[in-house]
Design goal:
Belongs to the amidase family. By secondary structure, the protein is of the alpha+beta class. 36% of the residues lie in helices and 14% in strands. Helix 2 (23-41) packs antiparallel against helix 3 (49-61), helix 7 packs antiparallel against helix 8 and helix 10 (309-319) crosses helix 11.
């Protein structure tokens, strides 16, 4: 028998609209799953059941007119994202008691659309790593294999969605932080074009690298949440590209991108690292499906190569310099302290020279791939990594280098500002997810979403669930007991 969490986010909202389920019922059901599985998965830092139920009651009481396609649906907010009145630790023991006085724009927009947040999802400290293993919450684990990491920095969001704790979640992506967890956990993780989603109301834009975005099980769910997040906000440092007619959900539902020229490559861009055969096989499968759908898939060189890594490295060091009270610096993790020490040594002149050279390299890469509508490559150089594998090196510099070699593709598209999505098209021999990266032209998010939805349809869908999906006995949905896991 289908449970509420078996439904996609759009199906849950449709059930609320038809009166078959209330938002309170959905929120109660998902809170029970959070209570039963949240710590096992390391999905949440802070759970807010009272706030969530109050918001659900308000959603149920709202007039039918003007309700959006995700009205009444449970969701979650990344612990890097400001949420008024809710503890926001930025994944760090240095901020364990911090409660912001204001909402980030994306939090405000989700609440206005009738989405109901259940709390704050686990992240890496200050968003500095591609795994979510800190001191303020259990490590974020992959629901497909609890010995493996759910990734980062939006690792808790991915664990929550892949484990059926929420159907869709907000995250952010400054170097792959949505797409990496999506690839590991078998989800759709979407990084919008620069400027599509507000990063406000505080901050300077961080050189345009990070952006808020959605993570979900299907392209349509992700597109629906993107429509919520992609509301223009005055004062943002980057102008948003024009919004498509009908919104991004219409593009996903249409799934008609037109005939495209798609450039395929598997050579890593930020490290001279062998790519695992399972990751190459996922690209091959995606290329075959796209070709069968009528697109031209051609081999192309990567836009950039490993020689640009020192430039990227300098930016990551500087971006780690988020304000931290001096008396709490000692509470930071060794990796964070290492990155901040390197960043503090970068002078203003060196930073300006780095930014100038990176832009020159972006121009080279853009001209190299100018003949392609989309680019297709692996999301990661390896399909999975165990919890503790990156920190197991003990040396923070070795930890950071392991991350670069594990993820040598995603970050390039944060620098270029292009829209980029990880899609769960592949599987390992042990049935674990493997993602591929599909990247569009800057501002052409609608075409990228339409192509992703078409690929989803051609693959006969990919909304598959791990054994832990059935880890809450339906008879105990209000009591949060853990039942036996079944496939």
């Amino acid at each position: 028998m289908a449970e509420p969490h078996d439904l996609t986010a759009l199906e849950q909202a449709a059930a609320v609209a038809r009166g078959e389920l209330s938002s309170v019922e959905l929120v109660t059901h998902h809170l029970a799953r959070v209570a039963a599985l949240g710590d096992t998965l390391g999905a949440f830092v802070t759970v807010t059941p009272e706030r969530a139920l109050a918001a659900a009651r308000a959603a149920d009481a709202a007039p039918p007119e003007g309700r959006g396609p995700l009205h009444g649906v449970p969701t979650a907010v990344k612990d890097l994202t400001l949420t008024a009145g809710v503890r926001t630790t930025f994944g760090s023991a240095a901020f364990t008691d911090f409660v912001p006085p204001l909402d980030a724009d994306v939090v405000r927009l989700m609440a206005a659309a009738g989405l109901v947040s259940l709390g704050k999802t686990t992240t890496s400290e200050l968003g500095c790593s591609l795994y979510s293993e800190g001191l303020v919450a259990p490590p974020a684990r992959n629901p497909w294999d609890l010995a493996c990491t759910a990734g980062g920095s939006s690792g808790g969001a991915a664990a929550a969605v892949a484990g059926g704790l929420v159907p869709v979640a907000q995250g952010s992506d400054g170097g792959g932080s949505l797409r990496i967890p999506a690839s590991l956990c078998g989800l759709v993780g979407y990084k919008p074009s620069r400027g599509v989603v507000s990063g406000g109301p505080v901050g300077f834009g961080a050189f345009g690298l990070p952006t808020n975005g959605p993570i979900g099980r299907t392209v349509a769910d992700v597109a629906a949440l993107l429509d919520v997040l992609a509301e223009p906000v005055p004062g943002e440092p980057y102008l948003p590209p024009p919004r498509p007619d009908g919104g991004y959900l219409a593009a996903a539902r249409g799934a008609t991108p037109g005939r495209l020229r798609i450039g395929r490559f598997t050579a890593p861009m930020l490290a001279d690292e062998p790519v695992h055969p399972d990751c190459r096989a996922a690209v091959d499968r995606a290329a075959d499906l796209l070709t069968a759908a009528g697109h031209e898939v051609v081999e192309v060189p990567p836009p950039l190569g490993p020689a640009v890594w020192p430039l990227f490295e300098t930016l990551w060091y500087v971006l780690a310099l988020a304000p931290v009270p001096p008396e709490r610096e000692a509470l930071l993790l060794p990796l964070t302290r290492h990155l901040r020490a390197r960043g503090a040594a970068v002078g203003a002149g060196a930073l300006m020279a780095t930014l100038g050279e990176i832009q020159a390299q972006v121009r080279v890469g853009a001209r190299r791939s100018a003949g392609c509508d989309l680019l297709l490559c692996p999301t990661l150089a390896a399909p999975q990594a165990p919890v503790g594998w990156f920190t197991g090196a003990c040396d923070p510099a070795a930890d950071f280098d392991r991350q670069r070699r594990f993820s040598p593709f995603c970050a390039v598209f944060n620098v270029t500002g292009q829209p980029s999505v990880s899609l769960p098209i592949g599987r390992t021999a042990t049935d674990l997810p493997v993602g591929v990266l599909l990247t569009g032209r800057y501002g052409d998010d609608a075409r990228l979403i339409a192509a992703a939805a078409q690929l989803e349809h051609c693959s006969d869908g990919w909304d598959r669930h791990p054994a832990i999906w059935r880890g809450v006995d339906s008879a105990n949905v209000n009591g949060s007991g853990v039942g036996g896991s079944t496939p």
